[in-house]
Amino acid sequence: MSLKKFIVEIGQGIDQHGQDPTKAARKAVADAISRSCLCGLVEIIGLKDLNQIEVEVLIACPYPERVKTEEVLEVIPFGRKRLEVVEGGMIARGIYQPELGDKSDEILVANAAVTVWVSMEKEG
C-alpha cells in the first residue's frame, strides 16, 4: 500500500490538577484535531470510508510510561490509529490542592503531532 501524508497538526494539552499524563495527552490530541476539517479526503481524493485513513499520533509528555494508549486514541473519531509516546512536554509548578486530586504541585504539559496518511491506490 502506498501511503501519502495528508496533514500534520500539532496540539498542546495541560493537566493542571491530578498529574495525569493521559489527560494532558488527550487534550493535546483534541487540540490538534480541532483545527482540521478533512473535507479534502472526500471531496478531492474521493475517499468513501474515513476508516481507511491511517492516523499516527506522537505524544511528548512527562511520565510517558503512565499514558494509557486506548484512552488517548479514543479522541480520534475514525481511522486505523497508532500511538507513540516519548519523554518530553513540560512540568511547571502550580499549586497543590489535594481536594482537586493533586499528588503534588506539578502541572503537566503534553504535545501532540497527529498525522493523517491516505492510500493513493485506487479502490476496487
Give the low-pLDDT segments. none
CATH homology superfamily: Tubulin/FtsZ, C-terminal domain
Number of strands: 5
Task: Just name the CATH architecture.
Answer: 2-Layer Sandwich
Task: Explain the overall architecture.
- The protein has 124 residues and is α+β, with helices and mostly antiparallel strands.
- It has a single domain (3-119), classed as 60s Ribosomal Protein L30, Chain: A (2-Layer Sandwich), CATH 3.30.1330.20.
- The chain has 3 helices and 5 strands, in the order βααβαβββ.
- Strands 1, 2, 3, 4 and 5 form a 5-stranded mixed sheet that branches.
- The two termini are 13 Å apart.
- The mean pLDDT is 94.
Walk me through the topology.
Layout: E1 3-15, H1 21-33, H2 39-43, E2 54-61, H3 69-73, E3 80-87, E4 90-93, E5 106-119
Parallel strand pairs: 2-3
Antiparallel strand pairs: 1-5, 2-5, 4-5
